[in-house]
Amino acid sequence: MILEKLINETAAFVREKLAGDSSGHDWWHIDRVRRNACRLAVAEGADPLVTELAALLHDIADWKFHGGDEMAGPRAARQWLEQHAVDSRVVDHVGEIIAAVSFKGAGVKTDMPTLEGRCVQDADRLDAIGAIGIARAFAFGGHFGRAIYDPEHPPELHDSFAAYKSKGGPSINHFYEKLLLLKDRMQTATGRKMAEERHRFLETFLAQFFAEWDAER
Ligand code: ADP
Ligand code: NI
Questions:
Q1: CB burial string 24-54: b at 16+ within 10 A, e below
Q2: Any idea which ligand is nearest the CA of 158?
Q3: Least buried of 74, 80, 121, 170, by fewest C-beta within 10 Å?
């Protein structure tokens, strides 16, 4: 299949699949991740096809929406690519990236062995911080019925994926459990640079949030 057609059909498939999402995992999240991943791929010299396909398919069946099943995403992505007669090395590579892309808890090390995977993971993480990251965190919290903040429910740093998966705290806790940790976990030089301003914006937001909470401003 001509590559441009494959990319366009994949984008249309993902767009339809994620239509109506209100948890921050909608089509425009995928589109932003795809654009940033492609930008990182150019800067870092990664394979453009694997990077773009993995970015497009990375949230196609996220464990958060499939009863915690971590393999639902890689399975659905592989199935789609196999149906379109994509080279088996590309299918394997995209499947591996999607299996490894998710954040799994503050104390859980995650390895992303290939440059293409690191571009997709950095792009996904950039979308979790900055102004967009803040909007997504509260959209996710609202979608799952979480409180905005509860001073009696402090954040936890999870040291296993199982503990991270089963967490259910207020959305502000997610900043301490994940979002503020992402800057130091970026894996490409370009992504690390892009994360700096977005990280500072999270800190500014939290300072203002707590000042207002404490009626200091
Ligand atoms: P990952 O693959 O690392 O889980 P996703 O692309 O699936 O990343 O997006 C995860 C995003 O969903 C987070 O960055 C955040 O915006 C939101 N999110 C996930 N869990 C929570 C939570 N418990 N509270 C608030 N937001 C959350
Ligand atoms: Ni994502």
A1: bbbbebbebbbebbbbbbeebebbebbbbbb
A2: 1
A3: 170
User: Is the separation of the CB atoms in 51 and 119 below 8 Å?
Assistant: yes
Q: What is the pLDDT of residues 114-168, one digit of tens each?
A: 999 999 999 999 999 999 999 999 999 999 999 999 999 988 888 888 877 777 8
Ligand 1, atom 24, lies closest to the CA of 171
**Tokens at 74, concatenated:** 């890689």
For ligand 2, the distance from its centroid to the CA atom of residue 4, given in whole angstroms, is: 22
User: Which one of the ligands is nearest to 23 CA?
Assistant: 1
Closest CA to 124 of 195, 214, 173: 195
Cβ–Cβ under 8 Å, residues 202 and 179: yes
Q: Is 78 in the pocket of ligand 1 (CB under 6 A)?
A: no
User: Measured between alpha carbons, how far is residue 78 from residues 26, 92, 115, 209 in Å?
Assistant: 20, 8, 20, 42
Distance 37 CA to ligand 1 centre (A): 18
- Distances in Å between the Cα of 16 and the Cα atoms of 157, 162, 184 are 35, 30, 34
pTM: 0.94
By residue count, the chain amounts to 217
For residue 12, report the distance from its CA to the centre of ligand 1, in Å: 23
**In this structure, what DSSP letter does residue 128 have?**
T
